[in-house]
TrEMBL record:
It comes from the Eukaryota. Keywords: Glycoprotein, Golgi apparatus, Membrane, Signal-anchor, Transferase, Transmembrane, Transmembrane helix. Belongs to the galactose-3-O-sulfotransferase family. It holds the Pfam family Gal-3-0_sulfotr. It is a single-pass type II membrane protein. This is Galactose-3-O-sulfotransferase 2-like.
């Protein structure tokens, strides 16, 4: 994308060449309008929300050395002295309060009334809002909405923390997190309710059946692919090493030895961490862009906003 938020594409690019999935880590309202200008009208937009309580416990461990968490002794200390540690959303400040609200492009310091408007804006933008705590049910709804198969949504858990870096929260701490992240919590409750209304429409018994089928396929694939889930220092293939941050210990996988070439490729794709997978996809896209650029230049067809810098690996 250009600095203005528009896609720089060859002028003769057909509609069929648009990407099937476009992932954005930060969705803000202004860029979302520009995204919709270049995407087909029938584009399906979806996002996922996580319980703000477990998310903040996880975020504190993962981002222990960043922003507002850096000086706090522990999570309870941060919550008890949040006015001292939290200085707004500048820099890494967004990690400290209503991160979900910030991620979706809304103002973390909005009033509750304004937040309700934000939720309705999300309802208009996203065709489906998934819930992390009901991940398999979410995948089933996504599969149904996009007319996919179980194998299209098959996945293994990635970025899981070791139990040694997970903290059991007291009821008091959980309530403090909800109060401090009140916009996130209210948003989560709202979309959790809409999620289960969608499940009701889908059919509760049908959902139970399809979740069991998805879990059955995952178990079979796990038995085929995985030797074990291990601490990062025990991962044999360094290309499968997950990024480590803060005090969190992110687990990874060892694949079974003796897999066929095709099975190894599939299994490796299922356990490749996001950063490495992103690099693979970027290199693949650059290669296609270079090939397409060369072809169009040979044919003498015009290119739009394609520069040498955009082709660098």
């Amino acid at each position: 994308m250009s600095p203005e938020g528009t896609l720089d594409l060859p002028s003769d690019r057909p509609d069929s060449a648009y990407p099937v999935i476009w992932c954005s880590g930060l969705w803000t309202l202004k860029p979302s309008v520009k995204v919709r200008k270049v995407m087909p009208d029938e584009t399906f937009y979806f996002t996922i929300l996580r319980n703000p309580v477990s998310r903040m416990e996880s975020s504190f461990a993962y981002n222990r050395n960043n922003g507002p968490f850096k000086m706090a002794k522990n999570l309870e200390d941060f919550l008890n002295n949040s006015k001292i540690y939290y200085k707004g959303t500048d820099g890494h400040g967004y990690l400290g309060k209503d991160w979900i609200t910030f991620d979706l492009g809304f103002e973390p310091n909005d009033s509750p009334e304004q937040s309700v408007l934000s939720w309705h804006a999300m309802d208009n933008i996203f065709d489906l809002v998934l819930i992390t705590e009901y991940y398999d049910e979410s995948l089933v709804l996504l599969k149904d909405a996009l007319c996919w198969s179980f194998y299209d949504v098959l996945s293994f858990p990635l970025n899981s923390r070791s139990n040694s870096t997970k903290k059991t929260l007291t009821l008091e701490t959980k309530e403090k997190i909800k109060s401090w992240n009140n916009l996130d919590w209210d948003m989560y409750v709202y979309f959790n309710n809409t999620f289960w209304k969608r499940v009701q429409t889908f059919g509760v018994e049908r959902m139970e059946h399809e979740v069991k089928e998805l879990q059955k396929i995952r178990t079979l694939m796990s038995e085929k692919c995985l030797e074990d889930e291990v601490d990062p220092q025990k991962i044999r293939d360094q290309s499968l090493q997950p990024y480590q941050s803060g005090i969190a210990k992110i687990l990874g996988y060892n694949l079974k030895v003796g897999l066929s070439k095709d099975d190894e490729l599939l299994c490796k794709r299922l356990v490749t961490p996001e950063l490495q997978y992103n690099t693979i996809l970027q290199n693949k896209q650059r290669k296609k862009l270079i090939q397409r650029t060369t072809t169009l230049q040979i044919l003498g067809k015009p290119m739009k906003n394609v520069t040498k810098s955009s082709l660098k690996p």
